[in-house]
Amino acid sequence: MERFKFILFRPLQLLPVLFGVSVISFVMVRSIPGDPVRLLLGTRATPEVAAKIRAQYGLDEPLMTQYLLFLKNLFQGDFGRSIVYKTSTFNVVAERIGPTVFLLAYVLVMAILITLILSTWAARRQGRLPDVIVRSYSMVGLGLPTFWLGIILIMQFSIALNWFPTSGYGESVAENLYYLFLPAVSITLALSPVLIRNLRASLISEMESDYATAARSRGMSENGIYFSHVLPNSLVPAITLLGINFAWLIGGTVVVEQVFSVPGIGQLMISSIFARDYLVVQLITLVVAIAVIAVNFIVDVLTAVIDPRVHL
User: Fold this and answer.
1) What DSSP assignment string belongs to 103-122?
2) Considering its fold, how many domains does the chain have in total?
3) Is residue 16 part of a domain?
4) Residue 153's domain is classified under what CATH number?
5) Alpha-carbon distance 74 to 282, whole Å?
6) Residue 81, φ and ψ in degrees, nearest 5
7) Is 235 among the domain residues?
8) Which of 188, 110, 186, 184 is nearest to 148 (CA)?
């Protein structure tokens, strides 16, 4: 019953978070120096034309009035019109979500596989050469920024070897996997070290626990102990850490999309910030906030499913 209440009421508790995100994003994006109307029309536009455009988009109103109007339209399902693209802000953002979601899923699959393989390899050979190699990779990888990794991968595998394209997204699923391979690798190489360190430590701790020793005394094989008890119990902190790092993952995706010219919401957000396209930036911020909240909610539920001792 307690878990049912958590699933029912937790989304309601997150509404104040979304409200705070909307306020912060509204204030910050309008604190950027520059006039979006002047950027749109150029220096030769007459004051009359500029004033007409400001009135059309409500930019001539006080900030509080603009925010209240934004909230009113938001509750009515109206996300406004993009100043740059001259169309619905929702349509502009919706067209760009696909590449970003595909890239995030690509990174998660690669990061989870690499984490499971390397953590198992290191933990079951603690103190030996495989463990030293994995720990060295984790230590070095923690200090590598995603944009630098992306540039190095482009120079080596796109320009020097001509194995992968330097930019783009592709049209079919196969092309998506091919075009986004280097962006996914650059983010994975930056994300996986922290996950590997956490899971390796958990695996070693669980393998030395009392229940593992008791299972060995009953004649249970090491593989049986590992896959039946050690690995499931070790996944709980790893899943929690992955949920905590999801916001960082989205931030890394924004940077990598810019480096590889991936037509996702990350590249759209950066271009919209430079163009002072306020409504596009605000909608992207809300979408990202909802995604982070949803992922953390799913992580909480998965944690409780894997470990019944966890109380929600």
Assistant:
1) HHHHHHHHHHHHHHHHHHHH
2) 1
3) no
4) 1.10.3720.10
5) 11
6) -115, 140
7) yes
8) 186
Q: Is residue 18 part of a domain?
A: no
> Can you list the alpha helix ranges (DSSP code H) found in the chain?
2-13, 15-30, 36-41, 47-56, 63-75, 89-123, 129-141, 146-153, 173-179, 181-207, 210-217, 222-225, 231-244, 246-260, 265-275, 278-306
The one-digit pLDDT tens for each residue of the chain (312 residues) are 555 566 666 667 677 877 888 888 778 877 777 666 666 666 666 777 767 767 766 676 777 777 887 777 777 777 777 877 878 888 888 888 888 989 989 998 998 899 899 988 888 888 888 888 888 888 877 777 888 888 888 888 888 888 888 887 878 888 889 988 999 999 888 888 888 888 888 888 888 777 777 877 887 877 787 877 788 878 878 888 888 788 778 888 888 888 888 888 888 888 888 877 888 888 888 888 888 888 877 777 777 676 666 555
Residue 84: is it exposed, middle or buried by C-beta count within 10 angstroms (0-12/13-18/19+)? middle
pTM: 0.81
Q: Which two tokens stand for residue 280?
A: 């596009």
Boundaries of domain holding 118? 95-306
